Structures are given as C-alpha cells and as structure tokens.
Amino acid sequence: MSWIILVIAGLMEVGFTFCLGKTKTATGQELVLWWIGFLSALGLSMFLMTKAAERLPIGTVYPVWTGIGAVGAVLVGILFFNEPATFWRIFFITTLILSIIGLKVLG
C-alpha cells in the first residue's frame, strides 16, 4: 500500500508541475484557479510522501518521488507545452525510469 501512496504522491508532483506551467499563460480568475490547483497538488503530494515514508525507507521514498516527478514533468512539457522530444531527453528519461524500477526491486 505504501508504494501505491508513493506513486500517487509522485503523480501529484506531476500535477503541480502542470499547474505551474499553466500559470505562465493564464490571467485573471484562470490564473488564480491554476495557483489553487498548484498549491492543492503540492500539499497533497507532500502529505502522501510523508505517509509513504512512514513504512518505506526515506532513501527510497525521496528518489522515487522526485524521479516520478522529473519524468512526469518532462512528459508534461513534451505533451502540453511543446518542449522538444530529442533522443537524449528520451534516453535519460528511460535511464531514470530504470533506476526507479531498480529501487523498487532492490527495496
């Protein structure tokens, strides 16, 4: 169950990254809503990461959480913000994913 909570925490990190990206072009009430989404996702992400750390080693929790967030942020950038999907970006995202899987297998 702790791993599921950790994955959701990582996905919330992706969510707050997406909201942060949307604040760059939003104005008025839309901007306020994106900031509310950012703060909500940030708070939920931190809360869930804390819950996962109650049962899993922090040396595993933090790298997995940041890894999910990093991979998710790059994918959000590519899919929603027209960032380039170069060979090297995909290559290093793949190595990051493999490292996260390695932590799960060895943890």
Distance between the termini: 14 Å
Largest sheet, described in full? none
Broad shape? flat
Radius of gyration: 15 Å
Range of strand content: under 5%
Percent of residues in helical segments?
A: over 70%
- Secondary-structure element pattern, one letter each: HHHH
Count of alpha/pi helices: 4
- Unreliable stretches, pLDDT < 50, 5 or more residues? none
Provide mean pLDDT, rounded. Answer: 94
The count of β-strands is 0
Search tags:
single chain, 107 residues, mainly alpha, 0% strand, flat
Describe this structure in words.
The protein has 107 residues and is an all-alpha fold. 84% of the residues lie in helices and 0% in strands. The chain has four helices and no strands. The longest helix is centred in the middle third of the chain and has 26 residues. The two termini are 14 Å apart. The model has no long low-confidence stretch (mean pLDDT 94).
Compose a concise summary of this entry.
With about 110 residues, this protein is mainly alpha-helical.
Layout of strands and helices, then pairs:
Blueprint: H1 2-22, H2 28-53, H3 58-80, H4 87-106
Helix pairs in contact: 1-2, 1-3, 3-4
